[in-house]
Each structure stands twice: as structure tokens, then as C-alpha cells.
Amino acid sequence: MSDNCIFCKIINGQIPANKLYEDDELLAFWDISPQAPKHFLLIPKKHISGPGAIKEEDEQLIGRLTRKAGDLARENGVSSFRLVFNEGPEAGQTVFHIHMHVLGGRAMSWPPG
Ligand code: AMP
Ligand code: ZN
To answer: How far is residue 72's CA from residue 89's CA, in Å, rounded to a whole number?
Structure first.
């Protein structure tokens, strides 16, 4: 738990979210501003500020999160999807609690903007 972290507040119930999955380590909820027909965020309940702050001790947790992203995408009818972690403001990070974007339901272009 980190003070003033919006995603920690979602985890502890202070802020509502449209959840699609939760267990003791992970939480997934639909993005409030979806950038694709299917767009949800998958986060660890442990506060890690971003992908650049993953420590060796977090490797199993982030590996599990990544596997869960694919499982949840498929369970929600998405077989082709994009997984995105943003690190730092220049990359577009606005919430400093690590989150994987899972985007699907439309064709994606490359390179990303
Ligand atoms: P990023 O720009 O990579 O840090 O992504 C942050 C994401 O969190 C954005 O896609 C926002 O739309 C999303 N977001 C912010 N607040 C909420 C919220 N309360 N519930 C759901 N998604 C949110
Ligand atoms: Zn947090």
C-alpha cells in the first residue's frame, strides 16, 4: 500500500472499479478510458511503481501476472491481444503502480504511438 496511489485505493476498496478478476496477489479491472473494444488492466496487489522497479523477488509474481493476462483475455473472448507496460511519463505512464494493459478486439498498428 502506497499513500495516494489510486490503484492501491482500488485494491483496498476505497475507490470502486469494474473488476473482472481478483485473487490474493492480482487484480484485474476494466480500464475507465478504454483504447480498444476490450481493454483491462492487470495489477499486482503489491505496490511496485512500474516495470522499471521490478526486483528479483518479484519475478514469479510478474510472471504469474503475465500468464494470467492471456488467460483473462481468452476468457473474455479475445484471442489476439496486445500487452503493454508503460514506464515513465515519456512512455505515457500516468499511474505509478505497475499495471499491464491488455488490449484486444480490434486490429493494432505498429509501431505504437
Ligand atoms: P498508464 O497511462 O499506462 O499509466 O495507464 C493508466 C491507465 O489507468 C489509463 O489507461 C487510465 O484510463 C486508467 N485508469 C485510471 N484511473 C482508473 C480507474 N479509476 N479505473 C480504471 N482505470 C483507470
Ligand atoms: Zn499502489
So the answer is: 27
